[in-house]
Amino acid sequence: MDFITSILTITIRAGTSLTIATIGEILTERTGILNLGVEGIMLMGALTAFATVFYSHSIMLGILAAIAIGGILALLHAFLTTTMRANQVVSGLSITLFGTGFSSFLGQRLGPESNNFRLVGLRAERILPFAPNWVKDIPILSAFLNQDIMTYFVYLFIPLAWFFLYKTRPGLWLRSVGEDPYTADAMGIDVTKTRYFYTIIGGMLIALGGAHLSLSYTPGWSENITGGRGWIVIALVIFSMWNPARAVWGSLLFGGINAVQFRLQASGTSVPANFLNMLPYIGTILVLVAITWWEALSKRVGAPAALGSSYMREEK
Amino acid sequence: MRLVFEKRKTTSISALILVPMVSFAVSLFLTALLLMIFEADPLKTYTAMAIGAFGSLYGFAETLVKAIPLMMTGLGVAIAFRLKFWNIGAEGQLALGGVAAAGVALFMEQFLPGPLLLVGALLGGLLAGALWAGIPALLKTSLNVDETLVTLMMNYIAILFSEYLYYGPWRDPKGYGFPGSRMFASNAWLPRIVGRAHIGVLIALFLALVLWFILKRTRWGFELQIIGASQQAARYQGIAVERNIVLAITISGALCGLTGAFEVTGISHRLQQGLSIGYGYTAIIVAWMSQLNPLAVPFVAVALAALSVGGDQVQMTMGLPAAMGTVMQGLILFPMLAGSLFTEYRLMAVKDNINSACRDAT
Lengths: 316, 362
Description:
The complex is a heterodimer. Chain A has helices at about 1-30, 40-55, 60-85, 90-105, 135, 140-145, 150-165, 170-180, 180-185, 190-215, 230-240, 245-265, 275-295. Chain A has a single domain (about 1-315), classed as ABC transporter involved in vitamin B12 uptake, BtuC (Orthogonal Bundle). Chain A is globular. By secondary structure, chain A is an all-alpha fold. Chain A contains 13 helices and no strands. In chain A, about 70% of the residues lie in helices and about 0% in strands. Chain B has a domain at about 70-300. Helices cover about 70% and strands about 5% of the residues of chain B. Chain B has 15 helices and four strands. Chain B has helices spanning about 15-35, 40-55, 55-80, 90-105, 115-145, 145-165, 200-215, 220-230, 230-235, 240-270, 280-290, 295-320, 325-340, 340-345, 355-360, and strands at about 1-5, 190-195, 195-200, 345-350. In chain B, strands 1-4 form a two-stranded antiparallel sheet. In chain B, helix 3 packs across helix 12 (about 295-320) and helix 7 (about 200-215) crosses helix 8 (about 220-230). At the A-B interface, helix 3, helix 4, helix 11 and helix 13 of A face strand 1, helix 6, helix 11 and helix 13 of B.
């Protein structure tokens, strides 16, 4: 029982950043904007959060700074793809390339002089699980309760995001922009404004996911701290078929793979670490193939119809 | 009055040339601001970068060393992107190509005498890259599985596999624990021209010409162009869309695989750490800045290689992070993306409200 509880605890902890970022990307993609900059934005979020907390000793400030940087990078993506009608794939990839390079650059410049201006290897305040001791003794349930404040935020945020998307008027507007921007426009919805707004909100959430990595899951800054999680997020969006309620299952599955990998490595199995590290990537491919196959069989399309295309009003 | 974009009847040639140049200038300007924030002198830094990349025969050879893989993978990515197949798996195809070439060079020595060993290694790399790219191509054409993610995930798998080999079974027992295989026999070495720059540069230039000819002057190239523009139109024309996509992506992967083979037979002469250092991702910038034109790829590749060599240089001489080269590359892309609009659209001023439009009409 202890074993299951501990696996589950790590799974949820690992799944937190994935879930937040996945819901962010779902909101973005639901308006028809594909943002492949997730990896870059998460990295910048992680770096900004850690550097801010290191100097200000305020976790709140660190989280706010990460959210701000995520919003700015997403604004750039929205401007390029919406106003300048740039190719969404290339724009997203550029943001990832830039975010990867810039976070590495800053990680070697923002540190204190005593550490050779580097941020690597430094410690700062972190977000800690806050459950009281008696909770920690309950098997299984404690895995859910013995978590930090951001995980609790996720518990609340999943149903809220689902409710917003499917049960409210702005949620309906959001979805209609992603399905058919021309009709949405005719109905009086401002397509451009909607796309800008949710791309920025999405970027903020993605960066928040990054902040959880450097402030809680693997506290501290290291280059490429995300280790490809940003790309797994994009797979998870497809996995959840653009529904926030389903995002949690995908995140738990991949968090689970992470946790099992952790355990196996700790117990010193004979399978080389490199093959264990391949698991999340092989898993993503298999899941993607299965989902696509299933979607084709059941003739259900989960993707927003207008995903990836610019909206050109004058070319109706 | 309000500004709107109006579609041009033909693509603007001047915008096609101006946009990359302005983008480069913008990148220089933004990076200068960044440098000043971190109390470095931009002029001094840029001079050091230029001298590092072009100022000496050694520097220029090093620029070529980085330009060769960028050219090759840039060509590979450009073919795929022309079909709107977003192959971001060049990095993994490169890594696996290096692994296969090393496998041939290390274990086929007694079967392949003389230069045959080198030829075998290069072919091995080419095939491995082709096969590795063939998987996402088949998944895309048969099941419509999103290729962006599959190619990317396969990068991690290929890189982890190569690490496993040079940390594990292929590790040189006499290597003092250094992560790498033993050195290849010298008949598996790609001949060098100057410094570490090898004849791969000539092969890459030749391939750029061949690809340009195939894409612009042959029937098959024309078919690929139609597929890239509209798969539906291609189908109406009776073009075998799926088969052609798989074939083109296999070629794309073969080029990237050959790049890996060049890296191990031409530069390191063994399989070792540092095979996968991001050429495959920079290739995406190379392809995009070249507007997917094979003839432009070599020029862009040399320019970006110079940024990277220059970046290394300022790390050594001025203590600035080498990642500055990557930051500059990223900062070129944003203005390029914004500017690409002007090749197909122009900015027009129009009267704002309907009333004034009506007045104009009467």
